[in-house]
Write a structure and sequence with these properties.
mainly alpha, two-stranded antiparallel ribbon, 2 strands
Length: about 325
Amino acid sequence: MPVRAGLIGLTAVVVMVLALGFWWDREPPAFDVRQAALEMAGGDQSRLVTGYVTTATLIRVADTLLDKPGGYLSNDVMPPGVFMDNMPNWEFGVVVQMRDLVQALRSDMSRSQTQSAEDSDLVIADPQFHFANDSWIFPATESQYRKGIDALKRYLARLSDPAHKEAQFYARADNLRDWLGMVNKRLGSLSQRLSASVGQARVNTDLSGEAGASQSTATPNEVEVKTPWTQIDDVFYESRGACWALIEFLNAVEIDFHGVLQKKNALVSLKQIIRELQGTQDAVWSPVILNGTGFGLLANHSLVMASYISRANAALIDLRRLLEQG
């Protein structure tokens, strides 16, 4: 009898852990960036000054990362979080996009020129989000990200306060172009890693385009690129997380940089990029990430994701070219 009761109890615990893991594995939904910014402004429309929506969106994304069901899972050491890998990889994709945007805020968007002083709160926020994403304790990753969020909230409060003229956000074409340059490289890397799920022989183009270029050590003319099968779902969910955050940031940029984009006739280009990225958020109906060959019997989810990201990245290159024009 005690053995039977123990087995029933163990089964109940396993079922509860599995159910909890399934609930925690659900990705957060998209949100309305303008509405989120208005809520942070206490419903006061006049506080939505240039840069307010972008900064508020960054804060909302960071809050979502920490406060979604199950909280932040990348540093969990207890079940079911310790056994989960899809959501931690999703979280890492979000974190990378957050890091890039807060760095752009600190280095470019909040400064009028290269010789101007950095914003005091952004100086604090930037390194907090660059803290190790998987530290469990002493200190925990969440505590460092919370400090970064608090610093961003102080910057946001000063941004809309006429008494704090030192807090600024400069919606200029060059600032947007520089941040998009970082996004360009991130998406390019994700696309290559996703495409390598089936393995490819690629011509080495590391030094193409410049006759006098050199590199540290010699490499073959052809290289074999293949993502290990154990990492295929990791790259897939990292990409979904990165695209989820990027969609929200681009929606915010559309509002804060509206004048610049309209003058450059680039609003349609931005909307197309967002639309391509939204395809990466479609529901995944398969219980596992399939890795079939390009024209094989089984689907290859990585190649589908890479297709969306590649098209978005190509449109992003065109958008940056438009922003460079006078």
